[in-house]
Amino acid sequence: MTRVTKLVMQGFKSFAKKTEIVFGDDFNCILGPNGSGKSNVLDALCFVLGKKSAKSLRAEKSANLIYNGGKTKQAAKQAEVSIYFENHDEEFPVEEKEVKLTRIVKSTGVSTYKINNKTMNRIQVVELLSNARINPDGYNIVLQGDIVRIVEMSPLERRRIIEEIAGINIYEDKKQKALNELNKVEEKLKESDIILAERQAYLRELKKERNQAMKFKELDEKIKRNKATRLHVKINIKEKKKQGIDKDIKAKQESISKVDKEIKELKERIVIIKEDINKINKEIEEKGDKDQIRIQKIIEELRVNVGTNKSRINSIENELTRVAERKAQLQQSYDEINEKIKRLESERITYEKSINQKESQIKQLESKISGFKSKHKLSDSDNIEKEIEDLDKRAEDKLKEIQDYRETQQNLLREKDKFEYQIDSADEKIAKVLSIKKEHQRELENLTKIRQQFKQATLELNTRLNADSEVTAQLSTARSRLLKIKEELAKNRAKQVGMKENSKDIAIQKILESKNRIKGIFGTVSSLGQVNSEYSQALEVAAGGRIKSIVVESDKVASECIKLLKQSRLGVASFLPLNKIRPAVPDPNVSKVLNYPGVQGRAVDLVKFNPKYKNVFSYVFGNTVVVENIGVARKIGVGTLRMVTLDGDLTELSGAMHGGYRKRTSSHGFQEKELVTKIEEYEAQEADLEGIVSDLETKKRDNEERITKLRHEKAELEADIIKIEKSLHLEDSDLDISKNMKKDLKEQIEKVSKELNELQLKISKSNSELAQIKMQKQQLRDKINALKNPRLIAELNTYEQKKTELREEIIRIKSDMKNIEAQIETIMKPEITNTKKILKQHEKEVDTFTEEIKQLKALIKVEEKDLKEKEGMQKEFYSKYKALFKKRDSINEDLNKTEQKQYKKDESRRNIELSLNKISLDNAKITAELEGLLEEFKEYENVPIFKDKDEEKIKREIWEFERMVNNMGAVNMRALEIYDAVEKEYTSVLDKKELLVKERHDVLLMMNEIETKKKDLFMNTFEGINDNFKKKFVTLSTKGEATLELEDPETVFEGGLNIKVRLTGKKFMDIRSLSGGEKTMTALAFLFAVQDHEPAPFYVLDEVDAALDKRNAETLASLIRQYIDKAQYIVISHNDGVISEADNLYGVSMNEHGMSKVVSLRV
């Protein structure tokens, strides 16, 4: 049991000097005259135990607890109190057998706590005391006034004492937290209801758009499929045609190869024949005159030339005949196409007139329909029709809902059958596994281990595959972005290069190319400055010709450059040497106008350049000011400053004005800041994206390697599993079966059965709602029948049908018109252009061939004349060597025949080649058309193709579906995506609401549980204290009885607690009706009852006997004596009856300086 062994005070209230009080284990009594400082001892005890409020220690603030110096005015610097507890039973969680608790308060009011001289905070002190069941605010410490307070307190305050003793505050905290949580849940529920209502309304609005988008999507898919099929048919036709052409080309190429071979053989024969002729000529030369030989050679050459030229004329004439035929065909084709275009244009005009006529008829019909409805009052039925349409939609939704329920029901039934089958086979499998376990324990363990590895490998593989998919998507996105950035960068660089190229003339270009040879060339003025595009026109005009000047390091460099231009004679250029160039002299008038409205600033300030070129740009622009327009320049004053407008108008100091329309070009322009900034940004983005792509490629490569490895591992593990299972005669599911699993299966069946019951209720409800919708629909139909006259409706339908037919006819005509325009623009006009081009080419060829024939005929005439002369000369010589000449002539004849054969073969080859070229052109045309079709077909790459579908039917369906799409008007395709997203969000909010409802229910259950436990705890505490109170009252009082009474026993926490006392007679009285002594005795009985219920190791009572007479005081002292075996008592009293019963007395006195001292006496 914990006891207070000692209390040491210094500087605390009246205890200025160090004062030590050693307490006994039993009954301790402190006495002394009024004002001597007795109660200060108990204040010190409460202070050191950690009471926070200074007022409870009878002081305004903590600093007032320090000794104030009395009459000497020598106040203490701090108040310090230490209390010592024995710890033999180790009630305190420390090793020491004695615990010293110290509290020090400074003049600032700040307190310091120590435990065994170690500084701690108040929380640590309170925790230490609570381990020994010591509470600074507990009911074991009764100070002056507490007795009166118990008597005078309200019933509610008195009930709260019981609550505090019972520890109800824990449940109150829990209840408050639960209430807070409930409020949060209620708020969230309100929010979810608002969101659900809004989302539901939004879904209703979206549904129509979604349905329209779905219909559009369906039609679009049908159109695409028909178009894809049509393209596929065309591609097949073209491919077959191309195959035929390829076959013809191959045949022609084989013919050419054959002819080439024959020509080669003929050429070889010609060579042999010529060698024979040469031998004869050599023999004749040896025997005859060399001049005759020369004549013979000339004759032979002339004959060959004449023969060749005549053969060429024949070939050209044949070619001219073919060209003429081809021209005639082309001209005919040209005329036919022109005629067809005229006919199609005429059809198009007819169609336009027909459309205008039909649109006029539609307007007339609409007017008639409107008048007809108004006349016969048929407009009311439109609203009912709309209601029926809405009901149809609702019925359709409800049917879909029922269908979904039915599908879910079937799935659940199948699931239930599966579970039941698994239960039936579970016992057999369990027995089988147990039997195998006895014989093959090691193999089974190995199998379980391998299966676990297989499961891990599968999970990792799935994770890797998902990651690979994500990385691939990221890589694709990054590459796409990189490609786009590269394209943009290339465009901007090309633009920049174009600007640079345009800004160079030959002289400037030559100088800039010599940069590496001549050091000190920096570039043109335009290349060294950057400007905003807004000011580029103005600044180019302001710079004038100087913009092309070349900036160099010094006049020496400029001199070298000028010398180079002179030597190479490439022109002139202007040079601005940095060591010589002088800036413009500042004009004070410029500063005055800079803040004028419309003034953009100094020209030189609007250019960004390297500071070392400052003098150059000052020279180039001078004091030129950039203004918004010529009006601003006039307001400032033309001739006062050199000014240039944003669109390039210029006013000089002389008053001269230059301006007008300027075509914006990039020639000689400054580099635009925006362009340079864009290029820099794109380059940075390019570098970043290349890094990302590289990282992703590495990541993808590593991941793919791991995937390959995992697939291999998985396959090996799967093979091992199958091998072991076969050897043990097991199936995959055998090892998974256990008794617990059987139990789980039964639970699953129960769960599924429950779901099936709930689903059946939903189906019944939906069927009922559907029947209700049908009834409403029938009622509306009855209303329409009552409103409408069948004859009038038939007449109205005739009008509507006619209008629909006219609209459909207009759509068909417009489609035909589009086809006509497409034929003219994409087929016929290009064909005419191409035909014209070929005709011109043929005309050119005719002119060339005609000229060539003319030249050849003149040449033949000359050659034949020369040949006749030479043959005359030869006759004389021929008579001398007739035999040799005869032989040579024979060989020459053979040579001519062979050469003629060769010419024919060459001609044949040319004809074949021409035919091949024609076929090749056709092939190129077919190939181009096929590539165009294939390129067009890429759009329908994954679209399924119809098989054996008639082309006319395809065309008709395309036209019909496109007409339907056109009739639909604008379709919001995003409605599909938005509807799904909103529906998902709606479902999510609905699920959250269900969770919130459950959460609210749980909170209410918890609050109910708290209230129940709280009441039980309170009543148990109340009954215990009430029993103790009754006993203690009888002990302290010689007459009567007392009891504690709840104002409202049913709802205990709404009423208070009264103390009822009956001293004489039968009537119970309230405690406030008693005398002072009777009140004190009743209050003490209540306090002792509380202490009995919650015993403390020590009790402190401060003058609780003040209102008692001697007999009652002795009764109190006797009661305390009964308790000293259970607890230690420290009592302050003036009453002899109490003092005489104490075991230890402590006298307190005070000197003239307001200092208290203590004298102890053991009785």
How many beta-strand runs? 26
**What does the largest sheet look like?**
6 strands, antiparallel
User: What share of the residues lie within helices?
Assistant: 55-70%
* Low-pLDDT residue intervals, each spanning 5 or more residues: 499-504
Question: How confident is the prediction overall: mean pLDDT?
Answer: 78
Question: What would you call the structural class?
Answer: alpha/beta
What attributes does this structure have?
1163 residues; alpha/beta; 6-stranded antiparallel β-sheet; 6-stranded mixed β-sheet; 24 helices
Question: Can you characterise this structure?
Answer:
With 1163 residues, this protein is of the alpha/beta class. 69% of the residues lie in helices and 10% in strands. A six-stranded antiparallel β-sheet has the order 2-1-4-5-6-7. A six-stranded mixed β-sheet has the order 8-23-24-3-25-26. Strand 23 (1098-1102), helix 23 (1110-1123) and strand 24 form a beta-alpha-beta unit. Helix 5 (168-287) runs antiparallel to helix 19 (882-937), helix 6 packs antiparallel against helix 18 and helix 7 (380-439) runs antiparallel to helix 17. The two termini are 23 Å apart. Residues 499-504 have low confidence and may be disordered.
Question: Quick gist of this model?
Answer:
The chain is an alpha/beta fold and 1163 residues long. Helices cover 69% and strands 10% of the residues. The relative contact order is 0.14.
